[in-house]
Amino acid sequence: MLPRLYEPCAFCGGAHPTAKGTQMSELYKTEILKLAKAIYESKKSVNYNPEMLKATAENFINAVRKGYGESFVNADWNTPDKAMIDKLQQNVWQFSAAKNYQQLRDIGGAMTDENGNLLEFSDFEEQVKNLNYKYNRTWLETEYDNAISAATSAAHWSEFEQNADTMPMLQYQTIGDNKVREAHRLLNGTTKPINDTFWKTYYPPNGWRCRCEAIQLPTSSAKVVEPQGLPDVPQMFRTNLAQNGLIFPKGHPYFDGVPKDILRRSMQYIPQENAWNIRKEYEEHAMVQYEGEATENREIAKLLYESGERNIRLMPRLEEHEQEVRKIIYGEEYAQTHERKCPDSFIGNEATEFKRCIRKQAKRRLEEAAQQANTALIEITETMTQKDINEFVAPKWQNKKCSNLIKILIINKGKVYKYQRP
Fold first, then answer.
1. What burial letters (b/e) apply to 377-405, b meaning 16+ CB within 10 Å?
2. 151: region left, alpha or beta (phi > 0 left; psi from -120 to 50 alpha)
3. Where are the domains of the chain?
4. Secondary structure in 3-state letters for 247-288
5. Which residues pair with residue 409 across a beta bridge?
6. Which residues of the chain have pLDDT under 70?
7. In angstroms, rounded to a whole number, what is the distance separating the alpha carbons of residues 282 and 291?
8. Beta partners for 276?
9. pLDDT value at position 339?
10. pLDDT, position 79
């Protein structure tokens, strides 16, 4: 069971039902009770439910859209706004997956009493209703409000950075009423350059239901104003959410103990226009960050770029049964003709599989790569001369297990050697 997560309302000091809270709670109630019945009948807990995940994430995305403003849907490709929006969307899906994991875990735990005895279904159902109220009304309302606030701050930060050369100074402002927290009042009026470390910790929001903001001063000659004191803001908010492309802090208790695979799978449902992290050298699907080979594959992508390759996309590994997702991410034609293949990358339109090995394993690794793609890349970790590499590649075109290969790429000691089928 998670601890109490959120501070009382900044306006009245307590929790209170609202029309919005009621709507949110009802949004999930029917589906959660159906899911709870299935869990009870199977006597098995679950930790992942796609429909519940999608409903949660879409709710938060609506809040982000509301807070970010018009640029959320109209941002041009390859602009700072587009990059920010992609990061925010990915964070929302990760947070939603973590929230659902914790709720499903609590639902599973509610099947039994303190002695481990199975409850009657009516008692279990009542427990589930209470959990739904807590997760999807009491807590969800605070999370929804935070999503609006954080998205607004993120939109401002993106604009601040674009104008920083001519307007480098930011000023911290509270709302100015008698509901402002004393900790935030200490920061009111603080004026510092946008690149000052102060903003890495105290850029708002600085807590749940924080209504503070930063404004960009229209002159570069504004004087620095120090804060009246540096307050002890909650640990999870001691960061610049906007600068890190976050709506919800990474230190939120929802993330405690969540398996990486839960977060990874949530990334498959992100709209494709927001699912790709764009670098100078390559693009990477959001799912890739949770895969063990991610760091090595990024280094390979950089070497390929330096060798002249372009349009490099690092792909996630998907299961055979995930056919609809495979069509979306790999492309419909590839998914239909290669139902079991999971290439590491697409270079242009060509699927490419990466392997790394010592020299004596290279033949086997090449054959394995050929099972996944028509272009195979082998990074051989032992030093080889170009003559050695040429002699290794030449007979492979006649190898029946490599008959589909149209291109072989060899990486050795940071250099890329390229071979096209004769």
1. bbbbeeebeeeebeebbeebeeeeebeeb
2. alpha
3. 19-161, 275-420
4. CCCCCCHHHCCCCHHHHHHHHHHCCHHHCEEECCCCEEEHHH
5. 377, 418
6. 1-27
7. 17
8. 285
9. 85
10. 84
